[in-house]
Amino acid sequence: MDIKACVIINAYYDKEEYFYQAKRLKEEFEKKRINCDILKNNFFPFVVEEKIKNKISDYDVYVYFDKDKYVLYSLEKCGKTLINGYNSIEICDDKMLTYITLAENGIEIPKTLPGLLCYDKNEKVKDLTIKNIISELGFPLIIKESFGSMGKGVYLINNEKELREKCEEVKTKPHLFQKYIECDNQDVRVIVVGGKVLGAINRKAVNDFRANVGAGGQAESYVLTEKIKTLAIKISEILKLDYCGIDFMINDEIYLCEVNSNAFFKAFERVTKINVAEKLVELCIKKVLQKNSLR
Prior knowledge:
By secondary structure, the protein is α+β, with helices and mostly antiparallel strands.
């Protein structure tokens, strides 16, 4: 098939689990006789001078397993086919912006407060700020750095001392405060490709409150209800995501935890035996052929 594909990953990804997604996509592309290159972003894919000069504009489709929105923006301006698009990744990369966007569209979010950004590290967090956070959310509560992956930058806060200390630590970074949802330290990760739910896994924390497999959580297959399937599809449509992993916290209610535009799927494929990479490749081909038919 006369299609050239490119998978872009972060230059700092050195561990094997980071490469898994890219390698699996390359395997599935090559099964269909499509050339696929895996590129790290440390060769500086574009340069800005009197105009944008893009060094990797000769591929038909790009699967973007990174959050470097500037590279993505340059490719989008060149009219390239992307999985996912610039606006989608920009929103998903910012947890607070994700919650705002989804809440505006009727998705239930745990009560969340935007963090106050401090531009002078010598300034102390005000007592009134601490008082108002406690008044709104109580204990325990969650502090999340707005930009982060794999459970990093997420903190469980049990009392005022911990709250004050963590506020001082994160005050110069974008962050948020969120009501703690009791769900037995587990969540449900749903994978959506091309507006269709592929399946789900239940992730349970081991000696931690974070259920991320990357943070040591364990995974098992999970049977989805139609309600969660419908909700996952709606979220992917709101955010215009071709591919995503959506995490839900479930007790008596269903709460959105996070949306991942470049979700790892190694554990998902292992546990469910569902070929995520194949579905992603099929979507890439479909989007390229649709685009070519409009020329």
